[in-house]
Amino acid sequence: xxxxxxxxxxxxxxxxxxxxxxxxxxxxxxxxxxxxxxxxxxxxxxxxxxxxxxxxxxxxxxxxxxxxxxxxxxxxxxxxxxxxxxxxxxxxxxxxxxxxxxxxxxxxxxxxxxxxxxxxxxxxxxxxxxxxxxxxxxxxxxxxxxxxxxxxxxxxxxxxxxxxxxxxxxxxxxxxxxxxxxxxxxxxxxxxxxxxxxxxxxxxxxxxxxxxxxxxxxxxxxxxxxxxxxxxxxxxxxxxxxxxxxxxxxxxxxxxxxxxxxxxxxxxxxxxxxxxxxxxxxxxxxxxxxxxxxxxxxxxxxxxxxxxxxxxxxxxxxxxxxxxxxxxxxxxxxxxxxxxxxxxxxxxxxxxxxxxxx
Length: 358
Prior knowledge:
Layout: H1 6-12, H2 21-33, E1 40-44, E2 49-53, H3 55-61, H4 63-70, H5 87-95, H6 97-116, E3 126-130, H7 135-147, H8 154-166, H9 170-183, H10 189-196, H11 203-218, H12 220-224, H13 234-241, H14 250-267, H15 273-277, H16 291-298, H17 306-323, H18 329-346
Parallel strand pairs: 1-3
Antiparallel strand pairs: 1-2
């Protein structure tokens, strides 16, 4: 390999590359924050919150925005079969060809002029309505496009991931996907599930929700005891309680359903607590809750029908009977008699019930 000449070494020492990316990012962030310096305003979300941007920057960073602002839609015309013409129509057409040729030439000149004209005036300020994303999410997207930097947060992560995918920002989408692995914690899991409700129609949501549910299954008791659990939509709560993979005891599931129902009734005064919690009872296996907990914590609330509690206790009696099959008949009979005397004392409504539940 030939050695570098002295002149080449000298040339290399004559210059150095100076980069100030942080300063550039700050200046671009300032640019996007000044409406008078921007040429497009997005009205975002249900509140139509205004978010300003520069079209040229958007178009340079995203092909979706480039097509939105600078590419004219190409008209597509369907080809129709030419109608058959008789001799009279053919004669009339030939006699009127000079006039038609003049009209067609004028139309072609007019159409060509329209194609050369810009889609919109370059100095015109445009307004675009964005209903798909929340204002905080879209603001982060615009910040990333202008500066190349953005702070990823669990609260807006799912929306930003889907926005990046929607507008063709692949590097941002990959960054969000990578951040998912480390941001799913007990403190953030409910916020992620709540945000998934808005973006359920996007493909990125499905992969994230799957990972979140896997985390919920592993940390069931902790998640169900969170105060933020009450902020989840009702169908998400039912979905969690119904999961067979959920590692949570049944009494904790009942407490979580009760906590959610009370919170819901506080916000909806016309709703009855018993009716609301009734939507979750089918997902709770009451026969797995110890009898003393059922009688002391669940039954006095009057929210669970007595029939469900009786069936749960009867199931436990059957389990006890299988365990005590080796005991003598007298001892087992005394045990059963004592158990049902306890039921009669605690739940008077079952006194009239048949004792054939065994």
